[in-house]
């Protein structure tokens, strides 16, 4: 499945995030139901920034409840600008983790106590490394953890592979898994039936939480500019930022 063009704004072609009728009927889930008291929260991001795009609001809410937090960045995101001389992989491998640290600071995350694991797997090549990736993830999980990661059918090869590997690791260890779509929101509206709406739950966000999430997304300067010299559009296109303004985040149980 391919996402719709991300160069369009709200007035462009209808996409799932801004037109699916199921969104209004999605049940709300409370934080206490989502994450039991005392449970550790683990967020598994295929690339730096996916933690903000997927659940930047949820991360803020959970941090206020003093849950132990662990972030696993599977790759360094260095393949986001293929062919670019302005943003070569050698530069991005340094810049993108720095952008993530700034984004987490903007979210108000407790960086002094946040355990941050960097996997070092090759960006844009995770499907071929699914089994070792699953073993790597399991090494850092504990029974009773509540794990958030990308949906295994998100439509991006790396996102899908991390979703599958995380599911295997959680099943092995005895952790609770929740999956979050990112690119799937930007499929054409006609594709909305393939979303597992029966598993969908909505986490409400207030205006302040949404604003901080957007502020955090803008820490990813490398993803906001692309490379016009080779016709490479920004990864964080305007329509994706528009979607992040919604007063909720949706996950699949």
From TrEMBL:
Ranges annotated as spanning the membrane: none
Name assigned to this protein: PIG-L family deacetylase
UniProt keywords, alphabetically: Hydrolase
One example GO MF annotation: hydrolase activity
Record-linked Pfam families: PIG-L
InterPro entries: GlcNAc_PI_deacetylase-related (IPR003737), LmbE-like_dom_sf (IPR024078)
This protein's record includes keyword Hydrolase: yes
SUPFAM superfamilies in UniProt: LmbE-like
PANTHER family tied to this protein: BLR3841 PROTEIN, N-ACETYLGLUCOSAMINYL-PHOSPHATIDYLINOSITOL DE-N-ACETYLASE-RELATED
EC numbers, comma separated: 3.5.1.-
Enzyme class: hydrolase
Gene3D superfamilies recorded: LmbE-like (3.40.50.10320)
């Amino acid at each position: 499945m391919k996402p719709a063009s991300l160069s369009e704004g709200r007035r462009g072609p209808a996409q799932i995030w801004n037109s699916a009728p199921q969104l209004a009927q999605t049940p709300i889930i409370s934080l206490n139901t989502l994450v039991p008291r005392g449970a550790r929260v683990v967020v598994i991001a295929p690339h730096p920034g996916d933690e903000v795009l997927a659940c930047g609001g949820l991360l803020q809410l959970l941090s206020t409840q003093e849950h132990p937090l662990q972030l696993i960045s599977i790759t360094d995101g260095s393949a986001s600008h293929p062919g670019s001389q302005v943003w070569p992989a050698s530069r991005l491998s340094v810049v993108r983790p720095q952008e993530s640290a700034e984004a987490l600071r903007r979210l108000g995350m407790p960086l002094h106590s946040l355990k941050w694991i960097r996997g070092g797997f090759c960006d844009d090549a995770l499907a071929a490394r699914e089994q070792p990736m699953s073993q790597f993830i399991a090494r850092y999980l504990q029974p009773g953890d509540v794990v958030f990661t990308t949906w295994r059918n998100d439509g991006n090869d790396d996102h899908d592979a991390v979703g599958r590997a995380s599911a295997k690791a959680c099943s092995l260890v005895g952790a609770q898994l929740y999956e979050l779509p990112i690119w799937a929101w930007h499929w054409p509206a006609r594709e909305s039936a393939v979303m597992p709406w029966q598993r969908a739950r909505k986490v409400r966000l207030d205006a302040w939480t949404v604003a901080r999430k957007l502020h955090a997304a803008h820490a990813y300067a490398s993803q906001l500019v692309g490379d016009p010299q080779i016709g490479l559009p920004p990864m964080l296109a305007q329509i994706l930022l528009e979607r992040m303004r919604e007063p909720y985040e949706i996950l699949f149980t």
